[in-house]
Amino acid sequence: MTTVHRATPKFLAFVPFLVFAAIGCVPALSWQTTSKQPQPTVHLGDNSDWWSLTREDTDAEHITFQERELSRSNFQILGINLNEGLFRRAEGKFGRATTVERGDASTARAQLCYVSTGEATSTYLIFETGEVNNTFYLFNAGPAWNGNDKCVVTKVAISGASTLSGLHLGLNPSEVIAILGKPSVRREDQVSYYRHVRKKTSEADLKRIRRQHREMSDKEFTDNYAFYDLTAMIVMRFKDSKLNYLAVSELETY
Q: Among 21, 76, 78, 135, which residue carries the largest CB count within 10 Å?
């Protein structure tokens, strides 16, 4: 069973930009090294981050979501899960990094960028948090973007990074489909999955949220927070039938 989510301004900002610019090699950057000192936050007023799903310059008005849940193993990479405390855990594993902020309101996003060193081709792993979504990106090709000089070199072998489910760069489309099943979108150079489920809020989360909304009656609270919507996206692009861009994102809304 599928359902079509018509794009509202808030939701539209989260729809992936399905047609990327022609992919080439990312130029060498002037890397900053990791530091034990807290890194600054910089605000950039542009949308040059072509790899971000949260950018507002998307061309899709609506997309179709399959009403079933993706395995949680798809949302963990190198031991990092897409949930609360994402940046803290990323910095604990890969080192301190400058937080780059872009956009506002529903397109607001903060990003941490890491890159492998000592390899023939640079591989990027970027973590992003938005108003209601968390995302990671893994890619090894594409145009440069404003702020890529903030990427931090890490000794962690990003080029060989894999989700717990087995998604990694270099796979062909058939291998991806063997892991994830029938895709929502399949094109010559793209395979994407859009999923949605309505889930019951855990008791722990209900207690936490209740403390924040003591003004609500029990009925109002139950009507608003007993269940939540979990939306997930996995967008993959290929060059010469090999995966070279992976974006995994999820958002929770009440």
A: 135
Please report the pLDDT score of residue 142 as a whole number: 86
Domain count, the chain: 1
Q: Read off the pLDDT of residues 25-53 as tens digits, 9 standing for 90 and up.
A: 443 333 333 444 556 899 998 999 999 99
Q: Kindly report the CA angle at 19 between 17 and 24, in degrees rounded to 5?
A: 110
Query: What gap in Å lies between CA 145 and CA 142, rounded to an integer?
Result: 9
30 in Cβ contact with 151 (< 8 Å): no
Given this model, what pLDDT does residue 2 score?
Answer: 40
Q: Which residues of the chain have pLDDT under 50?
A: 1-36, 59-61
Which segments within the chain are labelled E, that is strand?
2-6, 41-43, 62-66, 76-77, 80-81, 99-102, 109-116, 124-130, 133-139, 152-154, 185-187, 190-200, 227-239, 242-253
- pTM (predicted TM-score): 0.82
Half-sphere exposure (CA, 13 Å, Cβ side) for 243? Answer: 25
Residue 75: which domain range? Answer: 2-253
d(CA 193, CA 132): 19
